[in-house]
């Protein structure tokens, strides 16, 4: 089993209740009742599932050692008992983004959009994990699956985080984004 692989199943079963599904950019995903987060592969689409998304955790990209050290020191673990709200936000960037050289993506990611600096402001209230889909092949519908969890009292803080990120230069390269809000 690949311990870095996560499968997100939108259907009738799962730990998380789906509260809202919103297409931010591009096409949405079908609305489901529940979300199941499975560590590893799901060999077949479960009964009642309307969609299955897969991504792998990977090495960090686009950040410096100092930024990584700050993130590790400040971030909270996922799955804290008080974190009964979550968001799964699948994102696909356009071909223009992927045609840029690594150093230019880094410049946009941090020097222009301040992605890490922005995220640091919201830690440890918001815990997060990024799953890469492109590493699994061309058939995946998204490039990234971003997973966040937080306590209900930090819901407005989370709204501020996503609004700030969506207003950056980096988000001009997003061609599809779905915002799935969850509760347990």
Question: What are the key terms here?
Answer:
5 helices, 8 strands, alpha+beta, Alpha-Beta Plaits, eight-stranded antiparallel sheet, single chain
How would you concisely characterize the structure shown here?
This protein has 184 residues and is of the alpha+beta class.
Question: Can you give a write-up of this model?
Answer:
Helix content is 24%, strand content 33%. With 184 residues, the chain is of the alpha+beta class. The protein has a single domain, classed as 2-Layer Sandwich (Alpha-Beta Plaits). The chain has an 8-stranded antiparallel β-sheet with strand order 4-1-3-2-8-5-7-6. Strand 2 and strand 3 form a beta hairpin. The chain starts with a strand and ends with a strand.
Kindly state the percentage of residues in helix: 10-25%
For the sheet with most strands, the description reads: 8 strands, antiparallel
Mean pLDDT: 93
Identify the quaternary structure here.
single chain
What is the CATH third-level topology name? Alpha-Beta Plaits
Tell me, what's the shape? globular
Task: Please trace the helix and strand order, writing H or E for each element.
Answer: EEEEHEHHHEEHE
Strand order of the largest sheet: 4-1-3-2-8-5-7-6
Name the poorly predicted regions.
Answer: none
CATH top level label: Alpha Beta
Class by helix and strand content?
Answer: alpha+beta
């Amino acid at each position: 089993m690949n311990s870095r692989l996560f499968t997100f199943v939108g259907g009738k079963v799962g730990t998380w209740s789906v509260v809202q599904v919103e297409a931010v950019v591009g096409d949405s995903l079908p609305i489901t009742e529940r979300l199941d987060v499975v560590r590893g592969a799901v060999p077949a689409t479960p009964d009642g599932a309307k969609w299955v998304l897969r991504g792998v955790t990977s090495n960090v990209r686009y950040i410096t050692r100092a930024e990584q050290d700050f993130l590790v020191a400040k971030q909270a673990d996922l799955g804290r008992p008080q974190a009964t709200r979550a968001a799964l936000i699948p994102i696909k960037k356009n071909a223009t983004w992927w045609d840029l050289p690594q150093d230019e993506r880094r410049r946009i990611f941090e020097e222009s959009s301040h992605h890490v600096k922005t995220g640091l402001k919201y830690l440890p209230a918001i815990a997060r994990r990024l799953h890469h889909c492109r590493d699994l092949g061309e058939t995946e519908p998204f490039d990234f699956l971003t997973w966040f969890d937080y306590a209900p009292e930090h819901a407005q803080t989370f709204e501020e985080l996503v609004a700030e990120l969506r207003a950056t230069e980096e988000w001009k390269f997003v061609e599809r984004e779905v915002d799935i809000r969850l509760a347990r």
